[in-house]
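Task: sequence design from structure.
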């Protein structure tokens, strides 16, 4: 499905980074090793690489990752891409200074298992940054998956990401204008979590 969605020349979510990630990017040290989950066509990974970070982008779409590499080349940076199903992807132990999850909407059992791996895979002091749609997004019809259970709430994140320490956790409705995929007011949850 995602290969088909990404088949055109256009970048479905644009080539500029997600607003929330951009606002948090300075939390990462230059040369930090960062994993971008479900990174798609690479807009966030490429932005972080432009800030001097070492970025690995994982996604299940070969077409998306090819476009991510193309965007990186066009911007004069490099990223590492890994084609994998997040239901099976090994995040490793004490591997990452940062893990980024921007609109990574998965079946709930896959998401919960993935979130349970985040704590161990971060280095001490590592950060997890997330923005995702909340179930209320179904009313807005401006993007996101068609199922409420694939979306997230702040309460769910606190449960699934324990024992990470939440530096930020907020739910809000905000305009999201990201390519043809995200087209207006959106109901989101945002989080920055620290592995103490
Ligand atoms: C809404 S897009 C977000 C892309 C990117 N994070 C962004 O903000 O531009 C969701 C992404 O999740 C990926 N995805 C969905 N299910 C996946 C899975 N089981 N394993 C790996 N990637 C998956 C899709 O290929 C797609 O690129």
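Answer:
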């Amino acid at each position: 499905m995602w290969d088909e969605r990404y088949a055109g020349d256009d970048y479905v979510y644009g080539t500029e980074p997600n607003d929330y990630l951009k606002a948090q990017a300075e939390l990462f040290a230059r040369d930090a090793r960062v994993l971008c989950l479900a990174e798609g066509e690479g807009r966030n990974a490429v932005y972080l690489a432009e800030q001097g970070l070492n970025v690995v982008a994982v996604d299940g779409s070969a077409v998306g990752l090819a476009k991510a590499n193309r965007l990186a080349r066009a911007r004069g940076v490099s990223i590492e891409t890994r084609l994998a199903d997040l239901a099976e992807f090994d995040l490793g132990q004490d591997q990452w200074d940062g893990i980024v999850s921007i609109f990574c909407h998965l079946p709930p059992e896959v998401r919960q298992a993935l979130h349970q791996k985040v704590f161990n895979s971060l280095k001490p002091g590592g950060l997890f940054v997330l923005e995702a749609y909340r179930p209320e997004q179904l009313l807005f019809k401006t993007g996101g998956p068609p199922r409420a259970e694939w979306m997230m709430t702040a309460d769910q994140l606190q449960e699934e990401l324990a024992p990470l320490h939440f530096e930020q956790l907020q739910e809000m409705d905000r305009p999201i204008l990201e390519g043809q995929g995200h087209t207006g007011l959106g109901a989101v949850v945002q989080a920055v979590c620290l592995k103490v």
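Residues 62-75 form the longest helix (14 residues).
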